Amino acid sequence: MSGLLIRPRIRPRVAVVLVYTAAMCMNGLDSTIVNPALYTIAGDFGRPLSAANTVETAFLVALAVGLPVAGWLGDRFGTKRVFLGALTAFTIASAVCGLAPDLTTLVVARAVQGLAGGLLTPVGMTLLFRAFPPHERMKLAKVLIVPTALMPALGPPLGGLLTEHLSWHWLFFVNVPIGTAAVLLGVFGLREHVEGPEGKFDTVGFWLATPALGLLTYALGFGPSQGWTRPAVAVSAALGSVLLVAAVLHQVRAKTPLLKLKLLADQVYGSASALAGVTAAGLMGVLFVFPLLYQASLGASALDAGLSVFPEAVGLMLASQVVDRLLPKLGPRLLTVPALLVAAAVFATLAIPGVAENAWSVRGLMFLIGLVLGTAVLTVQISGFESIGPADMGQAMGLFQIVRTLGGALGIAACAAVIGGGHVTEAAADPGPYRTAVWVTAALVAAGALIALRLPREAPQPPPFDDEDAPPPGEGLAADEAPAVKG
Q1: 172-220 pLDDT, tens per residue?
Q2: CA within 20 to 30 Å of 398's CA: 127, 171, 380, 426, which one?
């Protein structure tokens, strides 16, 4: 045995799944977990709630700013290097947030978190989809559902529990051990892939698209609550819109664009991207407005309202267990269209007077939302990239995440605009505006069913699962550990 060298080995595809899930769970949770703690944070620092709201706005704006350049960075410097660098920055920023002595430090560290999160999501999904060929991606349903849909839904109740029983600092401290472990696993387990972008960096596209997304996210976040005519909001909305139009025109004409908008011309990918935006608008909108309706109808606490959406997470988990079985049999179109129609009907049912007043009805309907909408979301994520080659995967992922992020922001802004001046107090508030906003989310999801008609009827039948991580006979570990470098 003395001549036998035993080396511990982490299979690359296992490492990709573990690191991706850990990182995306952190990123998904942090998009919503702070909301229940804003009052407490404002009180601890002796600042008004409007000032504490910048903690969440800084994260969302910075996240949007990081998205346009994510695909180019991954192709230029390598997906492993960029992903682990962003994950390291996210973890350090989380520790700084938890230790922040004042609101300014917290906001700056939160912005760093958001910027790193904007890189994590598209680059992480690129790592994942490059590790699994199209015919095996249906097996990823159980992985994709956790960070993209489950974690944002769990954020509000978990944030309320941690703030109430520990302190708001633990909203950020919980990321540190998870992020550290994920970085170490990624260093030893992930394989590098450098695609090598063609041509020079699109500087013009960067300076058009990046501020456009940041300004629009800012306007959508503050417009409904502070008024669209407020100078900062109005200027951000107008300038962001102009820059966005200019960015689109430039990207279409540029030889080596920062964002390959021409990918949207592909029927499957283009339809999937549009669906991602519409379903994100509906889901994020209903998760925003229904807890307010629940409080208006029942006079429930913020924590109770957050917990009222928890059954949706259970439905999502069940959806992740069945999509990989149903998709090969039914195909993307037949699976997605009915799911979206049922989801729209469930959303509309939540707005019917008397439904929100019954706690068990709410729990049952939230479970159905998770089940049927989760089925549609997973189907879109899996089938939308079947026609995208490895060379375009980084760009396609970045563009997909931009559409989904803007869709979610638009959904929340639309609901907030419908609510208008309605305020929830311990006394019974008028639930009418909140019901109308829920109807808006139902209409968004129903519109998604029309887009889903463009999805293909058939799904490719996956062949028997092969262990592609195993090195070829006679080549040992070297063949498996060699970085995949192109360009």
Answers
A1: 888 899 889 888 888 887 777 666 556 577 777 778 877 887 788 777 7
A2: 171
For the cut 80, the answer to whether the pLDDT of residue 133 exceeds it is no
HSE on the CB side for 78, CA within 13 Å?
12
Cα 126 to Cα 53, 131, 134, 135, 246, distances in angstroms: 32, 8, 13, 16, 27
Backbone angles phi, psi at 439, to 5 degrees: -60, -35
Lowest mean pLDDT among 63-72, 274-283, 461-470: 461-470
For every residue of 414-454, DSSP letters joined together read HHHHHHTT----SSPP--HHHHHHHHHHHHHHHHHHHHHTT
Residue type for position 212: A
Nearest to 205 by CA among 215, 194, 213: 213
Q: What is the mean pLDDT of the chain?
A: 75
* Dihedral pair phi/psi, residue 77, rounded to 5°: -105, -5
Measured between its terminal Cα atoms, the distance across the chain in Å is 42
Q: Which among 414, 447, 61, 419 is positioned nearest to 279, based on CA atoms?
A: 447
Amino acid at site 453: L
Contact 280, 335 (CB under 8 A): no
Six-digit token string for 207 = 């300076």
| Angle, helices 432-452/332-350, rounded to nearest 10 degrees | 170
In angstroms, rounded to a whole number, what is the distance separating the alpha carbons of residues 160 and 163? 5
For residue 279, CA distances in Å to 102, 331, 336, 342, 381 come to: 37, 19, 11, 13, 11
Q: What pLDDT shows up at residue 462?
A: 43
**CB-CB contact of 29 with 152 (8 Å):** yes
| Each residue's pLDDT tens digit, 351-407 | 888 777 777 788 888 888 888 888 888 788 777 777 777 667 767 777 787 888 788
359, 450 contact by CB (below 8 A): no
* Token reading at 136: 């095996």
Closest by CA to 316, choosing from 275, 380, 377, is 377
Q: Which amino acid is at 422?
A: G
